[in-house]
From TrEMBL:
<dbReference type="GO" id="GO:0006261">
    <property type="term" value="P:DNA-templated DNA replication"/>
</dbReference>
<dbReference type="GO" id="GO:0008047">
    <property type="term" value="F:enzyme activator activity"/>
</dbReference>
<dbReference type="GO" id="GO:0016887">
    <property type="term" value="F:ATP hydrolysis activity"/>
</dbReference>
<protein>
    <recommendedName>
        <fullName>ATPase AAA-type core domain-containing protein</fullName>
    </recommendedName>
</protein>
<dbReference type="GO" id="GO:0000731">
    <property type="term" value="P:DNA synthesis involved in DNA repair"/>
</dbReference>
<dbReference type="Pfam" id="PF00004">
    <property type="entry name" value="AAA"/>
</dbReference>
<dbReference type="InterPro" id="IPR051314">
    <property type="entry name" value="AAA_ATPase_RarA/MGS1/WRNIP1"/>
</dbReference>
<dbReference type="GO" id="GO:0005524">
    <property type="term" value="F:ATP binding"/>
</dbReference>
<dbReference type="InterPro" id="IPR027417">
    <property type="entry name" value="P-loop_NTPase"/>
</dbReference>
<dbReference type="GO" id="GO:0017116">
    <property type="term" value="F:single-stranded DNA helicase activity"/>
</dbReference>
<dbReference type="InterPro" id="IPR003959">
    <property type="entry name" value="ATPase_AAA_core"/>
</dbReference>
<feature type="domain" description="ATPase AAA-type core">
    <location>
        <begin position="54"/>
        <end position="126"/>
    </location>
</feature>
Amino acid sequence: MDLFDSAQAVPADDAPLAFRMRPRQLDDYVGQQALVGPDKPLRRMAESGVVRSMILWGPPGVGKTTLAELLAQASQAHLEHLSAVMAGVKEIRAVVERAQQMSSTVILFLDEIHRLNKSQQDALLPMWSQGC
């Protein structure tokens, strides 16, 4: 199971409340209706299957990861989740390679992007320079 699958999984009764209450589809997402509501920019991107680059910013717990999961689900894209704090160059290169080999759209959710070091940035450069 990966993060993309977890957006659709039904949580166990003993799971933490925040996990049990997490939205399972874009219609369930609370807040930012000017972006995710019917016929709004993020909703249109997801429904068209073309999710463009974006930066999600906010304090912990506001739903950035959940929104990324829901956008991937709604656009039928594969979601890759990396933490800039935990992932090394090897993991970043592996994700880039997997993304280039996939026939479907890949959304890269890069948590804590401001913590990328120079070598991590260099590992992502080929993907960014191609407009991926």
